[in-house]
Amino acid sequence: MANAASGMAVHDDCKLRFLELKAKRTHRFIVYKIEEQQKQVIVEKLGEPNQGYEDFASSLPADECRYAVYDFEYMTEGNVPKSRIFFIAWSPDTARVRSKMIYASSKDRFRRELDGIQIELQATDPSEMDLDVFKSRAN
After folding, report:
1. Residue 3 pLDDT greater than 60, yes or no
2. Which of 38, 45, 57, 76 has its CA 20 to 30 A from that of 86?
3. Cα–Cα nearest to 51, from 33, 75, 25, 76
4. Residues 6+ apart with CB under 8 A from 128
5. Looking at the DSSP assignment, which residues form a beta bridge with residue 33?
6. All domains of the chain, ordered by start, with CATH?
């Protein structure tokens, strides 16, 4: 079903891979891309469970918008392992204006398709989503 605001559909694979991340922990992260010709959101890259934050950060293009989901694991002050699922709207300043507009207008509907997101981040440069940001938002 297309998104009324931007006309973007969400490929079934997007939800399927997210459910795998959420329920089975088969992925550390997922990078989503809007395929403008097909007018739909697709899965661009899946992160292996053993991959970390650096792998995730390097999988986002420096000058193109993306959506991403990251399963952030951390230890609480009482040494209890926890995890939070982050949704990241990556929209670098160097991206094309049209691309930024399409991603911005499709974000809310796409995010609603992924049931189980705990924390949302908007980032226009890597410093807005570095590890410290994840740590401070997770608690």
Report:
1. no
2. 38
3. 25
4. 121, 122
5. 42
6. 9-138 (3.40.20.10)
Q: Report how far residue 50's alpha carbon sits from residue 5's, in angstroms, rounded to the nearest whole number.
A: 37
Tokens 């959101």 correspond to what residue? Answer: 41
pLDDT value of residue 7? 65
DSSP letter for 79, please: S
Give how far Cα 38 sits from Cα of 55, 80, 117, 136, Å: 28, 44, 26, 37
Q: What is the pLDDT of residues 107-130, one digit of tens each?
A: 999 999 999 999 999 999 999 999
Radius of gyration from C-alpha coordinates of the chain: 15
78-113 pLDDT tens trace: 999 999 999 999 999 999 999 999 999 999 999 999
Position 69 pLDDT exceeds 60: yes
Tokens of 21: 């991340």
